[in-house]
Amino acid sequence: MAEGLNRREFLVCSAAGVGTLSLASPGLGSLLESQAQMAIARWTGPVPASLSEEQKVAAKLTEQVMEALGGMRRFVKPGAVVWIKPNIAWDRTREQAANTNPDVVATLVRLCLDAGAKRVKVGDNPCDLAQKTYVVSGIAEAAKKAGAEVVYLDRERFREVNIKGERLKAIPIYPEIMEADLVINVPIAKHHRLATATLCMKNYMGVVEKRQLFHQDIPTSLADITRFMRPQLCLLDCTRIMLANGPKGGRLEDVEAKWTLAAGTDIVALDAFGAEMLRRKPAEIGSIKKAVEVGLGTMDYRSLKPKELALS
After folding, report:
1. Per-residue confidence at 9, pLDDT binned at 50, 70, 90?
2. Which of 70, 222, 297, 300 could form a disulfide with 287 if both were Cys (CB 3.0 to 4.6 A apart)?
């Protein structure tokens, strides 16, 4: 990485370079345009009846949705440092659907390492005590077994970063996340009493401190942090979704098993898909509306012609 550039500045320069190459090379431009921007994988086989069956289904969904996007090597370069950012915010089990499915996380770790990543880190800034959420969610154990470094974010290490947002001018962000070559954003789709829904944009609140600042204007603040993070790859976990009493939940009556994953490069499109999974119209979600207004993506995810897979 060029001296004096942080990861985000480097990505801006890289994107500009790709744009120049695309203009100079019609072949490369066609290749970039032909790559899928979104894929959706649904399990249509028998409902998993045991933990081992659930693990196999989650792994297959993750493998196939990434393959439909062009494979993990499209995003992970040899020697890369990857940060996988799940939702590990709550002291809840996988069945309660407050955190990302641990087997989805573990499969992403394995795919990154297989693609040549030098290191894969997994971590979040939880609301409940991390020493509980990492264990009870099952994510720490699953990620470690897959070969990841599980990171407990030290709140003393967050540093103030000027993100130049419309609402958030500066906010403390965990430095290792900014320094990673690739951040894979992997939230679970669920209800949220303040934001209406927790989806991909909302999951970026786990890279910052002082998250109470978001509550002054959640849609604009989420657009600000999303613009700064420059999402390259997001995967939305809808294996189970929480339809009410989020974000922490706890009642199994509020959970519905959908055994579906969506992945892509347009974070707004993924959030729009997630809104529909939660039985909401995308235009009802303030953060999605704001993101469209400021040009972060499209609400009409069907216009991307996502690759849709039915697995069994």
Report:
1. low
2. 222
